[in-house]
């Protein structure tokens, strides 16, 4: 059947081409997201990939599978995007109060969360023999953030080798590099990732996640800084892309939450969603005039053991990806 579809597609049958590439669409989008850190940019890269594949189908020599051929195109489209220009400036809604002194300024201000609903129905294809990361870890915000700090070639090599599990020879063929160049790039990428401590293999192990998230929601909606930091690891991060301020550790987080508590109305509702296979919520404030609820952002947390090691607030621009309405009726 794939051979028949390929032949029909080569003859100009768009429906056959769609049937040929559709089984790979979701995983290609996830790959582009890992490369680019932005769902919007990933969708743009995916569309460019599929258009390029349609135009270049006559040049497909069948030396690899259609899936691998599509990964070659997608990876190179992402590399072109990364090399062509710097990231677009991302406008940010300023904080309602002067920000406390941050632990550092963030470097990945374009980061967006990835909706769990888009991970449903992915083909049940195990990574190749060379993979080092499990699927849950490789979609986590911590992993995707760390990957964004790698140079483009190292980023592509790491994802192809350690996430998708392609062999060094296959990766070299996909990227048009020598095996020696692939191995060198991989060694440098792994060293950087190890330094970023992105290994989240202990996440959820032995954790009553529901009890922890319930306690978090209770503390967060009550703006109880003491209760919030009591749930956090000693090296937890609080982030707010595209704002550059990042806070690490309970003391810095406490200063941040305390500064905001006196200037922001209490959150009236937290609507559960899923992002990057992590707990997430839409945050809603009550309008003092209408009594209705309006969205102020999307919050994603990371869990390590029995504590929270990451709290990331995203602006309302990502809400449509999660099916979150801008307003809710009075409750």
TrEMBL record:
Gene Ontology biological process terms from the UniProt entry: DNA-templated transcription initiation
SnoaL-like domain residues are: 214-262
The answer to keyword Repeat applying to this record is no
Keyword Transcription regulation carried by entry: yes
> What are the residue boundaries of the RNA polymerase sigma factor 70 region 4 type domain, all occurrences included?
142-193
Keyword annotations for this protein, in alphabetical order, are:
Sigma factor, Transcription, Transcription regulation
Which GO molecular function annotation, any one, does this entry have?
Answer: sigma factor activity
Task: Show the SUPFAM superfamilies listed in the entry.
Answer: NTF2-like, Sigma2 domain of RNA polymerase sigma factors, Sigma3 and sigma4 domains of RNA polymerase sigma factors
Domain RNA polymerase sigma-70 region: from-to ranges: 20-88
Subunit structure of this chain's protein: Interacts transiently with the RNA polymerase catalytic core formed by RpoA, RpoB, RpoC and RpoZ (2 alpha, 1 beta, 1 beta' and 1 omega subunit) to form the RNA polymerase holoenzyme that can initiate transcription.
Output the NCBIfam families linked to this UniProt entry.
Answer: PRK08241.1 (NF006089), sigma70-ECF (TIGR02937), SigX5 (TIGR02960)
Family, according to the entry, reads as follows: Belongs to the sigma-70 factor family. ECF subfamily.
The protein here is known as RNA polymerase sigma-70 factor (ECF subfamily)
Query: Species lineage, top-down?
Result: Bacteria, Bacillati, Actinomycetota, Actinomycetes, Propionibacteriales
């Amino acid at each position: 059947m794939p051979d028949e579809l390929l032949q029909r597609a080569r003859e100009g049958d768009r429906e056959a081409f769609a049937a040929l590439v559709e089984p790979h669409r979701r995983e290609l989008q996830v790959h582009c997201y890992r490369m680019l850190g932005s769902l919007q940019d990933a969708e743009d890269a995916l569309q460019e990939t599929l258009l390029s594949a349609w135009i270049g189908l006559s040049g497909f020599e069948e030396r690899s599978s259609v899936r691998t051929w599509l990964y070659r195109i997608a990876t190179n489209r992402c590399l072109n995007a990364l090399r062509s220009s710097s990231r677009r400036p991302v406008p940010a809604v300023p904080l309602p109060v002067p920000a406390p002194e941050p632990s550092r300024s963030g470097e990945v201000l374009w980061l967006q969360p990835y909706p769990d609903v888009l991970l449903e129905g992915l083909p049940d294809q195990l990574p190749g023999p060379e993979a080092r990361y499990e699927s849950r870890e490789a979609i986590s915000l911590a992993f995707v953030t760390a990957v964004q700090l790698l140079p483009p070639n190292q980023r592509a090599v790491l994802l192809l080798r350690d996430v998708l599990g392609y062999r060094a020879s296959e990766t070299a063929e996909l990227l048009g590099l020598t095996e020696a160049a692939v191995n060198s790039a991989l060694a440098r990428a792994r060293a950087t990732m190890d330094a970023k401590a992105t290994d989240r293999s202990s996440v959820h192990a032995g954790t009553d996640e529901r009890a922890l998230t319930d306690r978090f929601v209770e503390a967060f909606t009550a703006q109880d800084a003491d209760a919030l930091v009591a749930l956090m690891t000693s090296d937890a991060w609080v982030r707010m892309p595209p704002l550059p301020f990042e806070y690490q550790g309970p003391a810095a987080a406490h200063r941040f939450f305390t500064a905001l508590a006196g200037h922001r109305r209490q959150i009236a509702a937290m609507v559960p969603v899923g992002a990057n296979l992590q707990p997430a919520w839409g945050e809603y404030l009550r309008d003092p005039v209408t009594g209705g609820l309006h969205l102020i952002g999307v919050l994603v947390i990371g869990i390590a053991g029995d504590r929270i090691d990451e709290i990331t607030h995203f602006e309302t621009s990502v809400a449509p990806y999660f099916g979150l309405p801008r307003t809710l009726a009075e409750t």
